[in-house]
UniProtKB/TrEMBL annotation:
This is Transducin/WD40 repeat-like superfamily protein. Keywords: WD repeat. The keyword Lyase does not apply. WD repeats lie at residues 149-191, 294-329. It holds the Pfam family WD40. InterPro entries: WD40_rpt (IPR001680). It comes from Zizania palustris (Northern wild rice). It comes from the Eukaryota. The keyword Cell division does not apply.
């Protein structure tokens, strides 16, 4: 798509506005995979709001806490249960109770403010906090399972489970590190230091590029079996304006053959030559580097998500502090038939800094954006 066509497409896209939060910014959103058109959001007002995109008004609001809610997620396999983090605690609610819902469970294992939570298919709940630690909680036995520590030297901003590896989690932090864990043993399998001189020298630079540190602000992991199961990747939203796509199975291969003890504490991937140079050059195509030189963000990237619409996982959506949302066809960067670093399909100016975004498995109203306002925005993609 040409720049002119992209600009035209972006200009034609007016968001639908969902009003339910009373004040402050909307911090997080999640689209239901079990109930078509249902979206939940959390905010600095301490509320959880439920929307049905087939109607105009908010379905109901749960006054969860008097603290700002930093993150929320559904329980895997049971979207009647939702978890929300506020301060250093995690609360769970039964959605079927509507606005009358009260906390079913409360977990207080984190010592510092929680930045993100995630739930695995096995019932483990992960909470990344400002101390750099990640607490793994067994929600079935309702106890602390493991403490993941020492990989991050600063705030741990993001955590996700890897669905096709049920005992593996991935974390990112404001120390510019990405770490993959065997959380059953509390050990790192490998880590990437985006702040290392070797990786920084592999990134492009120009007068328009953001020169902030390469903090990891958000991580998205592809679902199991997408695109025929060919690619098993994660996307990394970086503070320097770049988005990286990492082939997790390729990175984990040495850990399987050499054992975790030898890989623990590794600060640089042994395949750092696979990092793109910003000009579409990839030695083996195992990492993709989407930065300003290929139409990327000019400020920190705050959120990334794989597409749940259309051919699931084919597109990657990123939002940033430059008030833009970008749609990427990242699969072209992993194709042996193209010499490409991924294609920018759409570039939208959303007027405000993006806090969070997610995608929905519907043909329309399939991109939900949380920005610095109290209103949730909904767009049609692609």
């Amino acid at each position: 798509m040409s720049e002119a066509a992209t600009a035209t497409a972006a200009a034609d896209r007016k968001p639908r506005r969902l009003r339910g939060h009373r004040k402050g910014a909307v911090t997080c959103c999640v689209a239901s995979s079990a109930r078509s058109g249902v979206v939940a959001s959390s905010g600095e007002d301490g509320c959880l709001c439920w929307f049905d995109l087939r109607t105009k008004d908010v379905l109901f609001t749960i006054e969860a806490t008097n603290k700002p809610i930093s993150s929320m997620c559904f329980k895997a396999g049971n979207e009647d249960l939702v978890y929300a983090s506020a301060g250093n605690e995690i609360l769970s609610f039964d959605v079927r109770m509507g606005s009358q819902s009260k906390p079913l469970e409360t977990y207080n294992y984190n010592r510092d403010e929680i930045n993100q939570i995630a739930v695995s298919s096995k019932g483990f709940l992960a909470a990344a906090d400002d101390s750099g630690d990640v607490k793994i909680i067994n929600t079935i036995q309702k106890c602390m399972y493991k403490r993941l520590r020492e990989a991050h030297t600063s705030i741990c901003s993001s955590v996700q489970f890897i669905p096709w590896r049920p005992w593996t989690a991935i974390t990112g932090g404001l120390d510019s590190k990405l770490a993959v864990w065997d959380f059953s043993k509390g050990r790192t399998l490998f880590s990437i230091d985006y702040g290392s001189p070797k990786l920084q020298n592999g990134s492009s630079s120009s007068s328009g590029q953001c020169f902030n540190p390469a903090f990891v602000h958000s991580i998205a992991v592809s679902e199991e079996g997408i695109l025929g199961g060919i690619h098993k990747v994660c996307a990394v939203a970086r503070g320097d304006g770049a988005v990286d796509v990492v082939d997790l199975e390729y990175e984990l291969a040495p850990a399987k053959s050499k054992g975790t003890s030898r890989m623990a504490g590794l600060s640089l991937s042994i395949k750092n030559t696979d990092v793109g140079d910003g000009n579409g050059n990839q030695s083996q195509g195992k990492r993709l580097h989407l930065d300003y030189m290929v139409g990327g963000h000019t400020a920190a990237v705050s959120s990334v998500a794989f597409s749940a619409f259309g051919e699931k996982g084919k597109f990657l959506v990123s939002g940033g502090n430059d008030s833009s949302v970008k749609l990427w066809d990242w699969t072209k960067g992993f194709s042996s038939e193209t010499n490409s670093n991924g294609e920018l399909v759409l570039d939208m100016n959303v007027k405000k800094k993006v806090n969070w975004l997610c995608t929905a498995p519907t043909d329309s109203d399939n991109l939900i954006v949380c920005d610095t306002s109290k209103v949730v925005k909904v767009y049609n993609l692609p």
